[in-house]
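stage 2 :: seqdesign
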C-alpha cells in the first residue's frame, strides 16, 4: 500500500510539471483488505491534486512563473552641437578649410609687378572692388614665409564648389563659390594676366599663391596656384 501511494504521488508530480490539472485515479485493491499503516496524504500528492502547498520549484502548484525582469534601458545623451567658427572680422578672407588672412589693400606697381604681402598671415587686395559688376578682385598670399606655412597654402587643396567669404573693412560680407582651380607656370603668367586678373568680364574673386617646385633665384617657386570664384547671389 505504501508503494502504491508513492507511485501515485510521482504521477501527480509529473502531471503538475506538465501544467495539466488531472486528478489521479483512486487506487482499488481487489480481494480482502489487508491491515496496514494509516494513510497520511503525501505532501507532494496533496499539492498536485489541490493546488495547495509548494512544488519542487518552490512555486505554488499551478501558479504562473514570475515575469522576466524588464530589460535594462540605456539612455543616450546626444552629442553637444558643434561649436560655430568664430565670427569673421572685418578686412579678412576665410578659405573653405578655415584658413584666415588679413586683407591689405595694394595696387600693381608702375612697372607692372604684382603686389605681395609682407607677412604670412596677410593677403594683398588689389583690382576691382568686392561689389563691382565686372572684373577681378585679386587676393594674393604667401604659401609659406620664413619656414611658416601660410593660410594660402590651402589653395593647393581647394576644389570647385567650395565657398570663400570676404569681409571688407566696413564689415560687409561677400560670398564666393569656387569655379576654377589651376596651376600656372610663372613664365606663362604675364601672357594670361589680363584674362585672369583684368577689369573686364564677369565679376570674380581670384586667389593667388606660389607653389610647385622650388627653383630659387628671382623665381622662387616655379608655379602659381590660381583659384577663381564667382559671387554667390
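stage 2 :: out
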Amino acid at each position: 500500500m505504501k508503494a502504491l501511494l508513492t507511485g501515485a504521488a510521482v504521477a501527480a508530480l509529473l502531471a503538475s510539471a506538465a501544467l495539466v490539472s488531472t486528478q489521479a485515479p483512486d487506487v482499488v485493491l481487489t480481494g480482502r483488505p489487508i491491515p496496514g499503516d494509516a494513510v497520511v496524504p503525501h505532501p507532494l500528492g496533496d499539492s498536485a491534486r489541490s493546488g495547495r502547498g509548494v512544488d519542487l520549484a518552490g512555486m505554488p502548484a499551478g501558479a504562473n512563473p514570475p515575469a522576466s525582469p524588464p530589460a535594462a534601458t540605456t539612455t543616450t545623451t546626444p552629442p553637444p552641437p558643434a561649436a560655430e567658427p568664430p565670427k569673421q572680422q572685418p578686412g579678412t578672407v576665410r578659405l573653405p578649410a578655415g584658413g584666415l588672412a588679413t586683407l591689405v589693400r595694394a595696387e600693381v606697381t608702375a612697372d607692372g609687378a604684382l603686389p605681395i604681402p609682407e607677412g604670412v598671415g596677410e593677403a594683398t587686395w588689389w583690382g576691382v572692388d568686392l561689389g563691382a559688376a565686372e572684373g577681378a578682385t585679386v587676393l594674393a598670399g604667401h604659401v609659406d614665409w620664413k619656414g611658416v606655412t601660410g593660410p594660402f597654402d590651402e589653395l593647393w587643396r581647394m576644389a570647385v564648389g567650395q565657398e570663400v567669404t570676404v569681409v571688407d573693412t566696413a564689415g560687409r560680407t561677400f560670398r564666393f563659390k569656387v569655379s576654377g582651380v589651376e596651376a600656372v607656370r610663372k613664365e606663362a603668367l604675364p601672357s594670361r594676366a589680363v584674362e585672369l586678373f583684368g577689369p573686364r568680364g564677369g565679376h570674380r574673386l581670384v586667389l593667388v599663391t606660389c607653389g610647385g617646385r622650388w627653383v630659387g633665384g628671382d623665381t622662387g617657386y616655379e608655379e602659381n596656384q590660381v583659384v577663381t570664384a564667382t559671387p554667390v547671389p
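stage 3 :: structure notes
- The chain is about 15% helix and 30% strand.
- The helical segments are 2-17, 43-50, 189-197.
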